[in-house]
């Protein structure tokens, strides 16, 4: 294909027929729902995979995906949104800071909390929670203690989460006063930063599809984060995911979801104690 043809293909819109095929793959493998109004996002992610093989037509790439389960899974991972920031939706962290953590530990700051970030992406919200716990315990004069678990459907993104290395842009949401305490410079030239000890050693990351039965059959969590992921599922799957995560929460434990997701699910077995914050009864 010559330069003119390549330029022509780059301007070719994704047809409804082809979009439907890619949307079906994402929903079948992950449960994530991509809506027709996300065609620009869909086109961007599909083209990114096509460039790996220098495929020049949607038809050709679809044939590749249909014949290659490895590439089908790689496409699915690329279509699962990985939006994450430190201290995103700060109201949740303010709630933890202003009495939430004290309640979770029953007034005993030395307690070691179990925390699950159920769709952890790069791990930013899990590390943000760890920082709040570390600050809470430091203020109480006790050493840091927490057991952090992050799960995600994407093995590629989990590898980055385990590395716990972030660019200067990716830590932009982290308050300045926390950076010297909880980050160590990984590369001066490239402005890369890594989560510091002991937070780093307190976390583990595991591949998990939230539509399947929960992991950790013997582990109950004090705090579970299911934030800004339910909106990618249809209504029935939203309820299933919510119930799965709730089942691994101890009575009296706290579940946080995205602020826009509260009205889409039945929160039976919980009581609301804050904005998109629920306690398991």
Automatic annotation (TrEMBL):
The UniProt catalytic activity note for this protein reads: L-glutamyl-[protein] + S-adenosyl-L-methionine = [protein]-L-glutamate 5-O-methyl ester + S-adenosyl-L-homocysteine
Q: Identify a single GO molecular function assigned to this protein.
A: protein-glutamate O-methyltransferase activity
Q: Which EC numbers does the record give?
A: 2.1.1.80
Quote the protein name from its UniProt record.
protein-glutamate O-methyltransferase
Q: Which SUPFAM superfamilies match?
A: Chemotaxis receptor methyltransferase CheR, N-terminal domain, S-adenosyl-L-methionine-dependent methyltransferases
**Record domain CheR-type methyltransferase: where:** 7-263
The record's section on PANTHER family has: CHEMOTAXIS PROTEIN METHYLTRANSFERASE
């Amino acid at each position: 294909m010559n330069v003119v043809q390549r330029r022509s293909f780059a301007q070719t819109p994704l047809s409804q027929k082809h979009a439907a095929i890619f949307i079906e793959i994402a929903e079948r493998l992950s449960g994530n729902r991509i809506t027709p109004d996300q065609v620009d996002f869909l086109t961007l992610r599909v083209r990114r995979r096509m460039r790996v093989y220098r495929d020049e037509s949607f038809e050709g790439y679809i044939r590749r995906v249909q014949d290659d389960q490895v590439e089908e899974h790689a496409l699915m991972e690329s279509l699962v949104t990985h939006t994450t920031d430190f201290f995103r939706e700060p109201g949740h962290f303010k709630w933890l800071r202003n009495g939430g953590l004290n309640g979770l530990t029953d007034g005993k700051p030395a307690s070691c909390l179990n925390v699950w970030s159920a769709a952890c992406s790069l791990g930013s919200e899990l590390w943000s929670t760890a920082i709040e716990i570390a600050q809470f315990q430091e203020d109480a004069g006790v050493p840091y203690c927490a057991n952090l678990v992050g799960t995600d459907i994407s093995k590629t993104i989990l590898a980055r989460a385990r590395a716990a290395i972030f660019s200067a842009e990716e830590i932009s949401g982290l308050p300045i006063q926390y950076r010297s305490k909880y980050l160590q410079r990984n590369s001066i030239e490239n402005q890369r930063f890594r989560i510091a000890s002991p937070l780093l050693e307190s976390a583990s990351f595991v591949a998990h599809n939230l539509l399947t039965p929960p992991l950790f059959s013997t582990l109950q969590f004090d705090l579970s984060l299911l934030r800004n992921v339910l909106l990618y599922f249809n209504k029935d799957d939203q309820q299933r995911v919510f119930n799965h995560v709730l089942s691994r929460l101890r009575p009296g434990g706290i579940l946080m979801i995205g602020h826009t997701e509260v009205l889409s699910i039945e929160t039976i077995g919980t009581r609301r104690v804050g904005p998109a914050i629920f306690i398991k009864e």
